[in-house]
Predict the structure of Nucleoside-diphosphate-sugar epimerase.
Amino acid sequence: MKVIISGATGLVATAVVQQSLAHPKISKVIALSRRAVELPDNVNSSKLKQVLIKDYNEYPEDILEELRGAHACIWTVAITPSKSMTYPWEDVVKICQTSTTTALHAMIGAGMAEPFRFLYVSGDRVDPDSPPKPGPMGRYIQLRGETENMVRQIAEQYHGKVQVCIARPGIVTSDATYTRAFWGSAVRTLNPVANVSRDELAAAMVDQVVNGFDKKVLANADLKTRGREVLTQQDQG
C-alpha cells in the first residue's frame, strides 16, 4: 500500500510518517513537504520517499509521477487557528482551503488506486452545518467547514472511487520537547478541553486509511479511543 503524507515535517505529520513506516501493510510512504523530514536514527526509513514541493498549489509532472498509484493520503497542511491571526486572510484561504482542493484534484488526475482514501485533518470546533460565528475565529472555523464540504463534493463526483474522511482533533499534545510536555500535561488535566496526544492521533489516522474509514467524521473522542487501541496493540506485539 502506498500512502501520501502531506505537510510531512509538521508536529502531527512527522508522527504519521513514523507510524506509516512501521505499518506492515504499507509498502511505500510519500512524504510530501517543502523541506526534508528529519526522523530519529532508530526509525527504519527504507520505505520512505521524500518529495519536496515548492507550492502546494502547483503540481509539476515529476511530482505527479511520485504520487501516481497511491492508495491513500493524510492531508495535514493548514495554518493553526492561533497563527491564522498573524497571516493575511487571503494567505489563510490559500493554505487551508485552496491547497487542499487543488491537491486532491491533482492526485486524482495523476491516477490513484481505487478506492483512493483521502483523510482531511480539520478541527474539533468545526461544524459546516452550524451558522457562522462572529469574529476572526468564527471566520476561520467557517473556512475549515467549507473546506470539509468541498473535499466531500469532489469525492462524490467519483461514485465511490474516492473516499473522504474528516478528522476533527482537539488540542494535540506532545512530549516531543520539555515545553510541549509541560503544556501537554496541563491540557490533559483540563477535562473540558478536547485533546488528543500526537501519537494517538497519528496511530488512529494511519489505521483508518489502511483498514477503511469507520465514519465520515472522526471526532476527537473517536480519534483518541482508536489511537489508544492501536498503540496498545503495538505494545503487545
